[in-house]
Amino acid sequence: MAGIAGKFIKSFSHAIRGIAFLFNSQLNARIELTITGIVIVAGILFKISTSEWLTILLCIAMVLSLEGINTAIEIFADKLHPDFDKNIGNVKDVAAGAVLIASLVAAIIGFIIFVPRLLGLINF
């Protein structure tokens, strides 16, 4: 069992190192992490419902995970083909587009959840 636990801990530490690399090396990931913090604070302050929390958390996971995948694809593609290549460029653009789609959907969901509460503060 110690072997399995050791492998799990090693895998976990590699994943943590990857997450640290993502946030230390990618401006967009840091921006997304900042927005995540703001959304979490807003959720606490506005006492959003359990279902709203689940939706928000899924959006956060979706955006940050796709940002990680996008970064991994970019690093791999640059290593595989350091010179400009139209097809590699298309791969990188599609990966970045996936992050954009997820971010836009997350923003729309955030607006649906938080704008009525913000308007309620103005119209009290």
Textual characterization of the structure:
The protein is mainly α and 124 residues long. The chain has a single domain (27-122), classed as Helix Hairpins (Orthogonal Bundle). Helix content is 90%, strand content 0%. The chain has 4 helices and no strands. It is flat and about 55 Å long. The termini are far apart.
Outline of this structure?
The chain is mostly helical and 124 residues long. Helices cover 90% and strands 0% of the residues.
Give the rounded overall mean pLDDT.
96
- Report the CATH topology name: Helix Hairpins
Q: Biggest β-sheet: count, sense, barrel?
A: none
Separation of termini?
60 Å
Please write the CATH class name. Mainly Alpha
Helix content: over 70%
- In terms of DSSP E residues, the strand content is under 5%
Secondary-structure arrangement, i.e. CATH architecture: Orthogonal Bundle
Low-confidence stretches: none
Question: What is the element string, with H for helices and E for strands?
Answer: HHHH
List keywords for this structure.
124 residues
Note the topology:
Elements: H1 2-25, H2 27-46, H3 50-80, H4 86-122
Helix pairs in contact: 1-2, 2-3, 3-4
